């Protein structure tokens, strides 16, 4: 009972102190918002294909080429948002020059013999120019352009094949049946996911940001809070009271966890309301996973805070862990894209497991049974690190 | 009756011996002065006696309890006014006192009653609902002393309690300490202020290079000085510790690894 009350007293004091510090309070709220908004808007996705300037060089002023240009100009990725803003140029070289000046992010050129070739049953030529200085936008732009051009070509092909079939073979041209389509594209693929709709990059990245914001906030918060008290001398006041060292650690952890969870909720709310992320799993499970993620980090936080004499040292020591973790945990990039050795390293980090589990719950609506492996690993890491950290903390603090 | 018994207490920080096998006793009810130049080992000794620092060897009994084996019991009987003020700047005086009172498992009514009593006595009553960050050093130190007294400890350790305070506040605190002592509180006081040590303490220990160089009543110590009429405690101190200024350079003290020196600056010289 006493221990519990000691823990609560320390947590309460920490939170009270925290809420009185206006600057800290402001950064506390702004940090997750910044993270979310930045990541949400800077990383390109299909949704970001909006009014991208591209160049056009149409050397063939036929009906067919005009139709193609029309399709590109009117392409809508999301409702009433045109994907491209098309500017005409006199040659491919002009488009390239415009890309160099960053006036456009790509372009396409229709050759002079475009309609002629189509008429003569030859392959017509369209050149897509890409902006290699911006691989991500370029990839999306060129992919979309290729798709549009190919689709347009396919339509032309189907029309041609249909004509042949109707005139040369005894196939009826019933409405609803499109034999030409079956000829041009005999296989139809269909995507089927676990959840309805198409996940975007943001849905992939939101659980990662949430885990990262919460866990790094708690880790730095815990270390900074202990070392700040050490630096200012107030820790002596706590240490000289007849309370157990574990209560000090747990009290500090509790206040930091509350702060972390609040930040996590800010991220979650932003994800839902600003970026349209749907949470398919249980919010309670999300909170549980975040708490376990925090738990898995407490040991490390305590060790750092006990060994660093000053707040600055502690922050620096933690930065050493955090920076690689940011990239290795798969928060922003799928782990599968990394070399095997990096994947192995990633699987030493607790953050990786927390993110994987959160992603399953948030995107795929996984239940507790589906993430039991991650739950076990996170708890395991937490218990083992605490087991070593608490006695070391006791020793370091009075050495 | 002896309330503190120190036996061969030693503290080493790597190769540097901050406190070198010191032994002394403090009588119940006395004000014991602990003097020494910068880096002599005063604060390190105080930190060991208050269980904040683990001795390298030797031990001590405080209020009848071993500082290593029964550190929890020791903590119940002592109050500490350390070199750094133990108050949270963003909390008011009352909130600070309530927090530390709670950590000492005092009922809230008792905390309130004692907080009001000490704040009133130390002339801080009117400021009790202001955040400590808005106080002057003197005001902070008075609340800090009230904090150390919340548990009404038998023994009060004070590490340079009047350093950097104006003469009025320093005088106020000294008078208050005498009053506390008259009410039975044993006081262990480190100071650089010889007049303070002389007016407050009956017995003083002069510590230098981690060893006790002299320990006696102020009167007896003064008798050692033969070449001066009416010698002061400062004469005694300089006679024992020498006139050489202790400013050989040392590494920047950083936290628990480094020895604890007296004074206010963060980076002190040994």
Question: How many alpha or pi helices of chain B?
Answer: 9
**How many strands, which pairing sense, and closed or not: the largest β-sheet of chain B?**
6 strands, mixed
User: Major sheet of chain A: order of its strands?
Assistant: 4-1-5-6
Total count of strands of chain A: 6
Oligomeric assembly:
heterodimer
CATH class of chain B: Alpha Beta
Shape of chain B: globular
End-to-end separation of chain A in angstroms reads 29 Å
- Give the N-terminus to C-terminus distance of chain B in angstroms: 36 Å
Major β-sheet profile of chain A: 4 strands, mixed
Measured as a percent range, the helix fraction of chain A is: 55-70%
- Rounded to an integer in angstroms, the radius of gyration calculated over CA atoms of chain B is 18 Å
CATH topology type of chain B:
Rossmann fold
Structural class of chain A: alpha/beta
Overall mean pLDDT of chain A: 84
What is the helix tally of chain A? Answer: 15
Helix content percent band of chain B: 25-40%
Structurally, the number of domains of chain A stands at 2
Low-confidence stretches of chain B: 253-270
Q: Quick one: overall form of chain A?
A: elongated
3D architecture notes:
The complex is a heterodimer of chains A (399) and B (270). With 399 residues, chain A is α/β, with parallel strands linked by helices. Chain A is built from 15 helices and six strands. Chain A has helices at residues 2-20, 22-42, 63-73, 92-100, 114-119, 135-168, 179-184, 201-232, 234-239, 245-273, 283-307, 311-328, 340-346, 350-364, 372-397, and strands at residues 52-58, 76-78, 81-82, 84-88, 106-110, 126-130. Chain A is elongated. Chain A starts with a helix and ends with a helix. In chain A, 39% of the residues are buried. By secondary structure, chain B is of the alpha/beta class. Chain B has one domain (2-84, 154-261): Rossmann fold (3-Layer(aba) Sandwich). Chain B has nine helices and ten strands. Chain B has helices at 42-49, 71-77, 93-103, 108-121, 137-149, 167-182, 194-200, 218-223, 233-241, and strands spanning 2-13, 16-27, 31-35, 57-62, 65-66, 78-81, 155-159, 186-191, 203-208, 211-217. In chain B, a hairpin with a 2-residue loop joins strand 4 (57-62) and strand 5. In chain B, helix 3 packs across helix 4 and helix 4 packs across helix 5. Classes of the chains: A alpha/beta (399), B alpha/beta (270). Chains A and B meet through helix 1, helix 8, helix 9 and helix 15 of A and helix 2 and helix 3 of B.
């Amino acid at each position: 009972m006493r221990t519990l009350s000691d823990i609560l007293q320390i947590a309460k004091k920490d939170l009270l102190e925290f809420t009185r510090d206006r600057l800290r309070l402001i950064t506390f709220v702004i940090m997750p918002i910044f993270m979310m908004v930045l990541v949400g808007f800077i990383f390109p996705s299909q949704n970001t294909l909006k009014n991208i300037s591209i160049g056009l060089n149409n050397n063939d002023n036929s009906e067919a080429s005009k139709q193609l240009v029309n399709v590109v100009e009117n392409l809508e990725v999301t409702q009433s948002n045109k994907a491209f803003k098309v500017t005409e140029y006199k040659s491919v070289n002009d488009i390239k020059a415009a890309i160099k000046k960053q006036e456009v992010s790509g372009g396409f050129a229709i050759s002079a013999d475009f309609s002629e070739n189509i008429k003569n049953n030859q392959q017509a030529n369209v050149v897509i120019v890409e902006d290699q200085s911006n691989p991500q936008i370029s990839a999306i732009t060129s992919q979309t352009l290729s798709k549009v051009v190919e689709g347009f070509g396919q339509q032309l092909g189907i029309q041609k094949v249909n004509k042949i079939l109707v005139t040369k073979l005894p196939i009826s041209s019933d409405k609803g049946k499109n034999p030409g389509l079956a000829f041009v594209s005999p296989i139809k693929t269909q995507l089927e996911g676990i959840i309805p709709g198409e996940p975007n990059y943001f849905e992939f990245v939101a659980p990662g940001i949430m885990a990262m914001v919460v866990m790094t906030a708690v880790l730095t918060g815990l270390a900074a809070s202990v070392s700040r008290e050490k630096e200012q001398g107030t820790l002596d006041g706590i240490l000289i009271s007849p309370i157990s060292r574990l209560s000090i650690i747990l009290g500090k952890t509790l206040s930091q966890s509350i702060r972390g969870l609040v930040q996590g909720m800010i991220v979650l709310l932003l994800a839902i309301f600003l970026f349209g992320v749907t949470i398919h799993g249980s919010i309670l499970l999300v909170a549980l996973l975040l708490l376990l993620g925090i738990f898995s980090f407490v040991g490390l936080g305590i060790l750092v805070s006990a060994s660093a004499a000053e707040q600055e040292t502690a922050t620096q020591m933690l930065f050493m862990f955090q920076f690689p973790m940011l990239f290795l945990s798969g928060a922003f990039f799928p782990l599968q894209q990394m070399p095997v050795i990096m994947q192995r390293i990633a699987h030493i980090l607790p953050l990786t497991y927390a993110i994987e589990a959160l992603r399953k719950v948030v995107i795929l609506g996984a239940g507790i049974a589906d993430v039991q492996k991650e739950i076990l690993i996170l708890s395991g890491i937490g218990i083992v690190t605490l087991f070593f950290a608490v006695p070391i903390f006791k020793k370091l603090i009075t050495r | 009756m002896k309330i503190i018994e120190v036996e061969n207490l030693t503290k080493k920080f790597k190769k540097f011996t901050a406190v070198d096998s010191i032994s002394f006793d403090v009588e119940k009810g006395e004000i014991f002065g602990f003097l020494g130049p910068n880096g002599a080992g005063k604060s390190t000794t105080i930190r060991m006696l208050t269980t904040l620092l683990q001795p390298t060897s030797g031990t001590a009994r405080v209020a009848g309890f071993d500082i290593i084996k029964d550190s929890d019991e020791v903590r119940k009987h002592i109050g500490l006014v350390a070199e750094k003020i133990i108050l949270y700047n963003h909390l008011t005086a009352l909130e600070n006192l309530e927090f530390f009172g709670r950590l000492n498992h005092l009922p809230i009514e008792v905390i309130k009653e004692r907080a009001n009593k000490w704040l009133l006595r130390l002339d801080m009553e009117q400021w009790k609902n202001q955040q400590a960050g808005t106080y002057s050093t003197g005001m902070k130190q008075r609340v800090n002393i009230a904090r150390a007294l919340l548990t009404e400890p038998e023994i009060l350790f004070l590490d340079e309690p009047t350093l950097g305070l104006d003469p009025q506040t320093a005088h106020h605190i000294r008078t208050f300490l005498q009053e506390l002592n008259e009410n039975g509180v044993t006081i262990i006081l480190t100071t650089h202020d010889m007049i303070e040590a002389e007016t407050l303490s009956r017995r003083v220990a002069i510590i230098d290079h981690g060893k006790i160089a002299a320990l006696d009543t102020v009167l007896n110590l003064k008798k050692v000085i033969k070449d001066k009429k009416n010698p002061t405690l400062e004469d005694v101190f300089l006679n024992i510790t020498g006139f050489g200024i202790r400013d050989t350079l040392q590494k920047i003290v950083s936290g628990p690894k480094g020895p604890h020196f007296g004074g206010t600056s963060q980076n002190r010289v040994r």
